[in-house]
Amino acid sequence: MKADSYxxxxxxxxxxxxxxxxxxxxxxxxxxxxxGDDEITRNLEKKAxxxxxxxxxxxxxxxxxxxxxxxxxxxxxGDEYLVGESAHMYRFEGGNGAMIGGVQPQxxxxxxxxxxxxELLKSYIKPDDPHFSNTKLLxxxxxxxxxxxxxxxxxxxxxxxxxxxxxxHMDGARIFNAMVKEKVDSKEYLEGFNSIMFCLxxxxxxPIGSMICGTNEFVFKARRLRKALGGGMRQTGIVAxxxxxxxxxxxxxxxxxxxxxxxxxxxxxxxxxxxKIDLDYVKxxxxxxxHNKNDSEEFSNKLKERGxxxxxxxxxxxxxxxxxxxxLVDETVKAISEYFSA
Length: 342
Ligand SMILES: *Cc1c(COP(=O)(O)O)cnc(C)c1O
Hints:
Elements: E1 7-8, H1 19-22, H2 39-52, E2 56-60, H3 63-74, E3 79-84, H4 88-91, H5 96-101, E4 104-108, H6 118-124, E5 134-141, H7 151-163, E6 167-171, H8 175-182, H9 186-189, E7 195-199, E8 210-214, H10 216-228, H11 237-249, H12 254-271, E9 275-277, E10 286-291, H13 296-305, E11 308-309, E12 316-319, H14 326-341
Parallel strand pairs: 1-11, 3-4, 3-5, 5-6, 6-7
Antiparallel strand pairs: 2-8, 7-8, 9-10, 10-12
Bound molecules: pyridoxal-5'-phosphate.
């Protein structure tokens, strides 16, 4: 079976550019971005910064690169960053802060919805004493497992950072899912943040790339770090034009993914015996489904035979994106239901 004939719930990173997005590729304005010659990339950066009201933005190869560059722009070797113990920046980025940046993570417990207890957080900040690392940066994640952080929590986190002399970074890989769901003003939602990273290559449907946004000074440092880490790329307009298309056309449509996700979750709960889904947790484009099977590999293989891809586990995470339609959801619910009643 060809890769693109599968119904793919593994992630929203599997989206492919639509025809119109591909048609934005043109040689007009293309240049060597390391020399600063690529006008299309400049335009993408201006657009990204403008959406959030930041001074400047920088195109980076991936979300992981963007988070690492931000971390290293904010922290010196021997500093530490406060990060959720279940956050992407702690668990899923190869330990890059410590490995490459010499910045130590201080994991803190996230509540179920990606929020943090501020009194507890305060207790993790180290005193200014030679025994301790210098606690420099607080990192949040939005959406967290598909859950959007409420504005009230975000505002409180910004005040907390300010009053405790911390910088604050948002790992906003799926920030637009959160913003569409919460119906917030994009310039107000992240006011007070020192930096934010978001991905073009997830629900927004672009093939490659992420953006980091911050002050002019932050981006100046970030540009040097991007080069040092091997992430300075040349004719980036080839992909930047698709990023511009994604920002112009694919933000509002995320609501369709969210509606379809809820539809799928409700149908799974109604039609399948042997699974559990906390519907209160289904807010944007992810479903976490626990099940009563011991062998999730076998479950995943059986679905694959029917043309459906999932990452095995328990719970199983199902991610909805623009490559998934209502018909494909119905077909999948039927396949899952048959597997569980066999
Ligand atoms: C996907 C993701 C990243 C990393 O993005 P890549 O482009 O895969 O490197 C970072 N943080 C979160 C929350 C993510 O979901």
